[in-house]
Amino acid sequence: MLDLAFIREHPELIKEVAQRRHAEVDVDALLAVDAELRATRRQAEDLRAEQNRLNKDMRAAGKDKALREQLIERGRALAAELKTLEPAERELEARLRELWLLVPNIPDATVPEGTSEEDNVEAHRWGTPREFGFEPVDHATLMRSAGMLDLERGVRVAGSRSYVLKGDAVLLEIGLLQFALERVTAHGFTPLSVPAMAKEFCFFGNGQFPRGREQTYALPEDELYLVGTAEVAITGMHSGEILREQDLPIKYVAWSPCFRREAGTYGKDTRGIFRVHQFEKIEQYVICRADHDESVRWHEELLRNAEDLVQALELPYRVVNICVGDLGDAKVKGYDVETWIPSDGRYRETHSDSYFHDFQARRADVRYRDAEGTVRYVHTLNNTALASTRTIIALIENHQQPDGTVRVPEALRPYVGGRETLGTPWR
RNA sequence: GGAAGGGUCGCAUAGUCAGGUCUAGUGCGGCGGUUUGCUAAACCGCUACAGGGGCAACCCUGUCGGGGGUUCGAAUCCCCCCCCUUCCGCCA
Q1: 3-class DSSP state for residue A49?
Q2: Separation of A372 CA and B35 C1' (Å)
Q3: Cβ contacts, strand B, under 7 angstroms
Q4: What residues contact residue A150 under an 8 Å CB cut-off, 6+ apart?
Q5: Is A352 among the residues known to form the active site?
Q6: DSSP notation for A210-225
Q7: What is the pLDDT of residues A291-342, one digit of tens each?
Q8: Is the pTM of this model over 0.90?
Q9: What does residue A379 show for φ and ψ, rounded to 5 degrees?
Q10: Annotation says A349 is catalytic
């Protein structure tokens, strides 16, 4: 959410940004409602001020019956006027909020122009896709043959895009999560295990709602939703707080299951477990002072942390700078780490590194008091450390061996009981 | 799920029964000052957030868990909801 005063002062900029980001929002209607609300509110405030003065007169009137009657008469008139203004005020507030929530963030000048994924700009690469001396297979084939995956029974239990990990795949999943958690913790991040269900305000706060509603699982009986990322819960955690500057930056590394409806993706990525409704993720999250340069520094550092993990897993990857048309509404700028997937013959998204300035902080109401005593909204950032299924795919496909087993990169071995290979030989 | 007790401006509490002097009192903590060789103590002052207005000093409005209602007027009375604590039930 942007500062309302900023929107008032830069309506043309907002319109232009909204268009580049494919975000539909009626800025003129927003400004009209805003003006009307301020006028209405002012009228109501004047009436309330008179009401308060009247209240004092009433006290001073003591036992003077005639005067009291006269004051009560005036009070009745005020109350009647307010009774018509107040519903209008509330109605305007609701309409303003609705429009306001649709206004996207302002992208950074270093965000590339473009309309879709195709226009993302490669920043750099690491590693080289491996030359296999045999016919490599995709992860689904390998995992099923090696006793690590049961898709059919997963679908029986929970429908399409569901899966059951088996045998060494479970060891691998848990090992990867622990590996990522420990490695990021070593950089001074505080580990968290957060609720996978959250109230609606967390989703509004994080920027998932209102636009991303159809991607979220709802539990209407309990007025809860399943989080698509730990980020939602973390943003909600500090909602309404005024933090102390000396406690910043707050650096979290959070584990949570992630649930995604994947609405509108029928027929996309249907092989294996690339696009699924549920996976496990370790997420990095930073809350820092309201300073652009500091946000940028953390953005780069979160990227380095993610790259460190992918490098330790010996997986080739590239980093792309997300173009404005492909960037989520709430983000100022974003990098994706895309890891090489041999069966696809291309790099595919495994991490998403973003900063938001105070966009999430305004929505979720997370502030801090700076050295001068001024209360400001914090800046927030987050980046994937490790997402279970996509990392499993990359690791299995890149490190597969001729006999159908998978070589475990050295850095990961302590987390899988010292094993050097996973899966049973099947060819 | 059932019962009882709670939720007040950082923390702890008063106020709610009897609506108006609550512009929400007090203690602690924090900040600034006086005194002081230094520290402590003592004393004095300040100590929420949001919105609006004003060049400014400052002024106005709202917020006592949230929402609605009664009333000229609600921290206080009524209704609904949320959260916390304790006990019971159920339970990984």
Answers
A1: helix
A2: 28
A3: A 4-5, 38, 41-42, 44-46, 48-49, 51-55, 58-59, 71-72, 75-76, 78-79, 90, 242, 367, 369, 373, 375
A4: A144, A163, A164, A166
A5: yes
A6: TTTGGGS-EEGGGTEE
A7: 999 999 999 999 999 999 999 999 999 999 999 999 999 999 999 999 999 9
A8: yes
A9: -105, 145
A10: yes
